[in-house]
């Protein structure tokens, strides 16, 4: 088991417990076990919602860049709130 395998499988297990993915079989390939997962309908809905959130943030960022405005950075949902230093770069 590699250095990241433990973290990967812990994350997959957490996603499975949340109903976002489900196991879809396993097999042995070249002497190594492979596990397969599929995204559930609940997981797909969550991904769609996050993609829409990222698209909105990207639209707002592009609009701010076009205006040349200084904007306040809003952390993604669930991220810890902490001050962010920004600097204006002159080209």
Rg measurement, Å: 20 Å
**Main beta sheet:** 2 strands, antiparallel
Q: What overall geometry do the principal axes of the alpha carbons give?
A: elongated
Q: End-to-end span in angstroms? A: 48 Å
- The poorly predicted ranges are none
Please state the average pLDDT score: 83
Strand content: 15-25%
Beta strand count: 2
Query: Helix/strand-derived class?
Result: alpha+beta
Counted by DSSP, the helix tally is 2
Give the SSE string. HEEH
What is the topology, as strand order, of the major beta sheet? 1-2
Helix content range: 40-55%
Protein architecture, described:
- The protein has a two-stranded antiparallel sheet with strand order 1-2.
- It has helices at 5-17, 41-67, and strands spanning 21-29, 32-39.
- It has 91 residues and is of the alpha+beta class.
- The chain is elongated, with a radius of gyration of 20 Å.
């Amino acid at each position: 088991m590699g250095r990241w395998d433990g973290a990967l499988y812990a994350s997959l297990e957490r996603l499975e417990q949340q109903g976002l993915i489900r196991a879809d079989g396993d097999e042995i390939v070249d002497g190594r076990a492979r596990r397969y997962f599929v995204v559930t309908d609940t997981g797909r809905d969550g991904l769609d919602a996050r993609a829409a959130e990222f698209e909105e943030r990207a639209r707002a960022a592009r609009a701010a860049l076009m205006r040349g405005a200084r904007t306040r950075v809003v952390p993604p949902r669930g991220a810890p709130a902490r001050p962010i230093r920004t600097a204006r770069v002159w080209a």
